[in-house]
Amino acid sequence: MSFAQRLALVVAAALAVSVGWRLSPALIDLFDGTEMPRVVTARGELAAEERSTIELFQATRDGVVAISTAARVVDPWTRRSYDQPAGSGSGFLWDGQGHVVTNNHVIQGASRATVALADGRRFEARLVGRDPSHDLAVLKIDAARLPEPVAIGTSRDLQVGQKVLAIGNPFGLDWTLTTGIVSALDRELTEDNGRTIRGLVQTDAAINPGNSGGPLLDSAGRLIGVNTAIFSPSGGSAGIGFAVPVGTVNRVVPQLIETGRYTPPGLGVRFDARVNALANRQGIDGALVMSVEPGSPADRAGLDPARMTRDGRLVPGDVIRGIDGAQVRTLDDLEAQLDRLSPGQEVELDLRRNGESRSVSLSVTGGS
């Protein structure tokens, strides 16, 4: 086919299309400009629960902070050290003095931490204290005109099914709100280092990497826990999150601010974990008292420690079998019960001595 013939075919096709357009009203309608956007349907008032959630978020978001950390690394070639971004997390203002509560694992290993407020201001923070046993830490920033700190609630009357809200910094998405319910209470979580955190609140509110250290709030906007971990094979939210209960937070944080460390409640007695584990394996339930501190509440209550015979045999003294009605089978059980108490609180111990049961009352000390 010659060039002239091909050109004639192209012109004929173009004319056919042109005629088709002129003969097709549907095609003409596409370009006549008469189509308008659809009318928006009025939605009416927000539901009461929606208004409550919005108001709660607006009232509490400014008390929540975003935390970014850096770790000091050494260049293997130049031997020079520098700060390298290490991670991010969340936290919240504890008081008007600039104390910020977060998770210990958020700042662990960090050489520097930066706290960002909701108004855009950023501050270098210093570490005040930390408690790995409860995965809690306190930072401090020097800042004027701080927002109101998050209100403190209680974890004593929490019930499975009640509404909770989490505000945090998941994946660096600052001040993200998620909602859910209390899924379970008094959970235990064993960390990668083998340490067990007890008494946790379980929630299905979406918690992801970066939420750690942020507040878990009740429907009144009060702190009821500090988000600390998730259970997820994939590393993302799977609807199983855990928070340190506010009762624990309210015991630990004041000590961290005052002394930089947390000293758990005690009875004025000493235990030996290895000896106790051996006794448990031999069928002896309870916590074996190995020694009693002179002048302590346990000493005044007459607790009898174990003693060693001349031929090297251990003769048990008092074995603590219960505390305030809660059964104690192992040393871990006793420590878990003590961790719920406050210094000066009166408790009743159920003891076993020489095959006989007895009870004594004493006050809890500030340290074991």
From TrEMBL:
Gene Ontology biological process: proteolysis
Residue ranges annotated for the PDZ domain, each copy included: 256-355
Cited Pfam families: PDZ_2, Trypsin_2
One of the record's GO molecular function terms: serine-type endopeptidase activity
Leader sequence residues: none
Keywords linked to the UniProt accession: Hydrolase, Protease, Serine protease
Family stated for the protein in its record: Belongs to the peptidase S1C family.
The protein's name in its UniProt record: Serine protease, S1-C subfamily, contains C-terminal PDZ domain
Organism: Tranquillimonas rosea
